[in-house]
């Protein structure tokens, strides 16, 4: 289990499945309100993650479940999570049908670019990144300590943007959105927590943007 403990929030995450999917739990420390992000697989392991975060705030409570995108490996435990925690579900509007097809869950609040999720006093912004899937959403917050954090799903990783399957149009869309909506807006110290694998920060990745554009992936 991994953790990032900030002034306003704690973010804990685990890796599940043969795809090494990251499942994240954001807890607003003042209220104990929690947002679960990407119920990928292994619901018992997700329950252990939730239990481990019970110390991160008073009377911790799952109040919403968010999904970064529609791919099957990110939603295999979504139905079980919604059954146990019948709360508001969030995902990109353009991935809503795909998530329903893959998981059987109809997203109750489809997100558009720039929409906000209120988690206690913490604001989490939905950033629409088009290319890996039509409705991929990154979730961004800025802690009162000044630390920005982005849960990037499969749209941004250490070393490049997400898979666009050698489709030039999809790659062009994704690299443009990642550049304009993430790198042009957020500072180098922004922590990036992706849908698989290890974390990074924008300062580490920023010098390589031109290289990514040139190689096309």
Question: How are the elements arranged and paired?
Answer:
Blueprint lengths: L1 E4 L3 E8 L4 E8 L4 E5 L5 H10 L8 E6 L11 H7 L3 E5 L3 H8 L5 E3 L4 E4 L2 E7 L8 E6 L5 E6 L2 E2 L2 E2 L6 H16 L7 E4 L5 E2 H4 L3 H7 L2
Parallel strand pairs: 4-5, 5-6, 6-7, 11-14
Antiparallel strand pairs: 1-2, 2-3, 3-4, 8-9, 9-10, 10-11, 12-13, 14-15
Structure notes:
- The protein has six helices and 15 strands.
- The longest helix has 16 residues, at 168-183.
- The model has no long low-confidence stretch (mean pLDDT 97).
- β12 (156-157) and β13 form a beta hairpin.
- The protein has helices at residues 43-52, 78-84, 96-103, 168-183, 202-205, 209-215, and strands at residues 2-5, 9-16, 21-28, 33-37, 61-66, 88-92, 109-111, 116-119, 122-128, 137-142, 148-153, 156-157, 160-161, 191-194, 200-201.
- It has a seven-stranded mixed sheet with strand order 1-2-3-4-5-6-7, covered by helices on one side.
- It is an alpha/beta fold and 217 residues long.
- It has a single domain (2-215), classed as Metallo-beta-lactamase, Chain A.
Shape descriptor reads globular
Unreliable segments of 5+ consecutive residues:
none
CATH homolog superfamily? Ribonuclease Z/Hydroxyacylglutathione hydrolase-like
**Main β-sheet, in a few words?**
7 strands, mixed
Cα radius of gyration in angstroms: 16 Å
CATH class: Alpha Beta
Order of helices and strands: EEEEHEHEHEEEEEEEHEEHH
Fraction of residues in helices?
Answer: 10-25%
Number of strands: 15
- Provide the number of structural domains: 1
**Spatial order of strands in the largest sheet:** 1-2-3-4-5-6-7
Structural class: alpha/beta
Mean pLDDT, to the nearest integer, reads 97
CATH architectural arrangement: 4-Layer Sandwich
Give the terminus-to-terminus CA distance: 30 Å
Number of helices: 6
Query: What is the CATH T-level topology?
Result: Metallo-beta-lactamase, Chain A
How much of the polypeptide forms β-strand, as a percent range? Answer: 25-35%
Biased composition (Basic and acidic residues): 203-217
Keywords: Hydrolase
Domain Metallo-beta-lactamase: 20-196
Region (Disordered): 189-217
């Amino acid at each position: 289990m991994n953790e990032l403990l900030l002034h306003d929030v704690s973010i804990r995450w685990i890796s599940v499945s043969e795809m090494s999917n990251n499942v994240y739990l954001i807890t607003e420390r003042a209220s104990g309100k929690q947002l679960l992000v990407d119920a990928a697989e292994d619901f018992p392991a997700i329950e252990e993650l939730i239990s481990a975060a019970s110390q991160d705030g008073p009377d911790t409570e799952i109040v919403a479940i968010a999904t970064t995108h529609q791919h099957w490996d990110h939603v295999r435990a979504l139905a079980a999570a919604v059954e146990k925690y019948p709360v508001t579900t969030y995902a990109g509007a353009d991935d809503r049908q795909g998530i329903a097809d893959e998981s059987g869950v109809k997203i109750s609040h489809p997100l558009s670019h720039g929409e906000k999720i209120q988690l206690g006093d913490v604001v989490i912004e939905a950033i629409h990144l088009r290319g890996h899937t039509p409705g991929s959403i990154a979730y961004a917050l800025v802690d009162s300590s000044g630390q920005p954090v982005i849960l990037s799903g499969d749209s941004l990783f250490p070393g490049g943007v997400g898979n666009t399957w050698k489709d030039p149009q999809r790659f062009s869309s994704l690299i443009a959105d990642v550049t304009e909506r993430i790198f042009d807006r957020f500072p180098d110290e922004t922590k990036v927590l992706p849908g698989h694998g290890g974390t990074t920060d924008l300062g580490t990745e920023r010098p390589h943007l031109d290289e990514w554009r040139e190689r096309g992936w």
